[in-house]
Amino acid sequence: MSTEILVFFVFVLSIFLGFELISRVPSMLHTPLMSGTNAIHGIILLGGMLVLADAHSPLTIALGFVAVVFGSANVFGGFMVTDRMLQMFKKKKK
Amino acid sequence: MSSSIALTYIAAAVLFILGIKFLSSPKTARYGNLLAAFGMLVALIATVPLLGKEETSLLKHGWSLNYTLMVVGIVIGLVIGAIGAYSVKMTAMPQMVAAFNGLGGGAAALVASLEFLRRANSPEGITTFFAITMLFATLIGSLSFSGSIIAFLKLEGHLEKPHTFPGQNVLNGLILLVILGLCGFLTVESSNNHATQAFIAMFVLALVFGVAMVMPIGGADMPVVISLLNSFTGLAVAADGFTIDNISMIVAGTLVGSSGTLLTLLMCQAMNRPVTNVLFGAFGSGGGSKTAAGGIAGTVKPIQADEAAVLLSYASQVVIVPGYGMAVAQAQHSVRELSDELGKRGVEVRFAIHPVAGRMPGHMNVLLAEANVPYDQLCEMEAINPTMDRVDVCLVIGANDVVNPAAREEKTSPIYGMPIIEADHAKTVIVMKRSMATGFAGIENHLFYKDNTRMLFGDAKASLNALVAAVKAS
């Protein structure tokens, strides 16, 4: 079995896993959830770093730089804003 | 990829999965988010040895200008993200998610573009599979970028009304066809001399398409749009993962893509509308069967805060229905105060949360949580409706379409069939509202004209403060 097929296998399983994980979230947590998953796709920062490392021309370096800034804002901002939302979910202090 | 890096990526993937799982309970949600963040840190560190092909490898050849820029870029992004995350008001949370999502989409499109242009100009060329993944990531990423910007602007209060013109769907369809045509050309002819131009044209058209797609959708449907664009960005990131051969990006992006798709469908389900209707129906235009105010039986009966306070303090069961108006007036703290004050007098207070109240699912929960309303006091629509007959006073704060009985009674109404909170079943309904203006769906609300409804006009926060004072005094 080639590596490509194995990677594709992981991809398909991830689709089903995503569906399963979400179906059990109560609607009150949907906003933090959307925000949290939004932060997780900030993993694109890795992609930005990888292409910037390989960039040679001024244009590609500039675009790679922009990708890193965007990805970094997505990932850090995403997790911080989710945490700020979730720290407010507490039970009534008796 | 060495096996130690691969194993670290597996660890990161497990942390993401556990993080999302823990997010599903209010008790563990915060911990879940921190786990996912920790997973991200693990993935970041594991990527360092992978940076750079042979001749630019960080480990083999050391530091270069690119790495300086990388660190600077990460720090700039960190600062932007932190300022955004900690300065945003809780009521503006949906915009913030839209903005971060747009940035992620933009990054995904750029990564795919750079990789495509690099490979198209290299002797090795591009195989069909990689061409498709790169074009997909560029297309979806850039339309998510521009679509999120429009969603952001709409939520900020600009461009709020849907923008439609005759033949819009046809024009959008044509743009999409041209985009797909260009993608087809680029897949087959990736080393063609004109590939770069065709690629740039595709990129620009994808940006235009993102704008054209979101523009006709009303502000009330932005939660669905953001959720959809969030899953789009996830898929673009996954496609990027295939392109640059990074399995952690594939797993994380796919998880977001599939969970976001499901969330989008759940939200449409809550509004009883197929997703196609949200995206292409230009629902918020208020066109079609708008009922004129004169056509509704009954009169509007105003009430003053003192009288409302008496009704509330002598009730045994009160249900509060918050809506976007509460968010706009920043009234969540005043609501909590009122609920506490009533609680002290032995009134049982519950909050009825409609799945699409506000501008995001769970928007109201976040606001009330910010104001320290315990989450066990928040009830979902399905739980509260069967008990509505026994409720003495239902206090509607800035909610409109989600309590409109037209959804149940009037077959011609654009919101007919949407599940609503049955506020009109309570013995008395007090509606707090600034004016008689219509809600986002642009339709008259029959609730305001019912015999058991009283209207408390004014800014929600000011009215609530008056109520609290009156309850304390009584």
What descriptors fit this protein?
heterodimer; A: 94 residues; mainly alpha; 76% helix; flat; B: 474 residues; alpha/beta; Rossmann fold; six-stranded parallel β-sheet; 6 strands
Secondary-structure map:
The complex is a heterodimer of chains A (94) and B (474).
Chain A: H1 3-22, H2 30-40, H3 44-54, H4 58-86
Helix pairs in contact in A: 2-4, 3-4
Chain B: H1 3-22, H2 29-47, H3 58-61, H4 65-87, H5 93-120, H6 128-155, H7 168-188, H8 195-214, H9 222-243, H10 247-270, H11 275-280, H12 305-313, E1 317-322, H13 324-328, H14 332-344, E2 348-353, H15 363-370, E3 378-380, H16 381-384, E4 393-397, H17 406-409, E5 428-433, E6 453-457, H18 460-473
Parallel strand pairs in B: 1-2, 1-4, 2-3, 4-5, 5-6
Helix pairs in contact in B: 1-2, 1-10, 5-6, 5-8, 5-9, 6-7, 6-8, 6-9, 7-8, 9-10, 12-18, 14-18
Description:
The complex is a heterodimer of chains A (94) and B (474). With 94 residues, chain A is mainly α. Chain A has 4 helices and no strands. Chain A has a domain of 59 residues. About 3% of the residues of chain B have low confidence. A 6-stranded parallel β-sheet of chain B has the order 3-2-1-4-5-6. Helices cover 57% and strands 7% of the residues of chain B. Classes of the chains: A mainly alpha (94), B alpha/beta (474). Chains A and B meet through helix 1, helix 2, helix 3 and helix 4 of A and helix 1, helix 2, helix 4, helix 5 and helix 9 of B.
Return the domain count of chain B. Answer: 2
**E-strand count of chain B:** 6
SSE-based structural type of chain A: mainly alpha
Task: Summarize the largest interface: chains and residue counts.
Answer: A-B, 77 and 114 residues
Largest sheet of chain B: 6 strands, parallel
Query: Which oligomeric form is depicted?
Result: heterodimer
Strand percentage of chain A lies at under 5%
Biggest sheet details of chain A = none
Mean pLDDT of chain B: 85
| Percentage of residues assigned to helices of chain B | 55-70%
In whole angstroms, the N-to-C terminal distance of chain A is 59 Å
Question: Could you report the average pLDDT of chain A, rounded to the nearest whole number?
Answer: 86
Radius of gyration of chain B from the CA trace? 26 Å
The ordered string of helix (H) and strand (E) elements of chain B is: HHHHHHHHHHHHEHHEHEHEHEEH
What is the helix tally of chain A?
A: 4
Report the radius of gyration of chain A as a whole number of Å. Answer: 18 Å
Summarize the helix and strand pattern of chain A as letters. Answer: HHHH
Q: First CA to last CA of chain B: what distance?
A: 72 Å
Question: What is the strand content of chain B?
Answer: 5-15%
Task: Enumerate the spans of chain A where pLDDT stays under 50 for 5 or more consecutive residues.
Answer: none
Helix coverage percent of chain A: over 70%
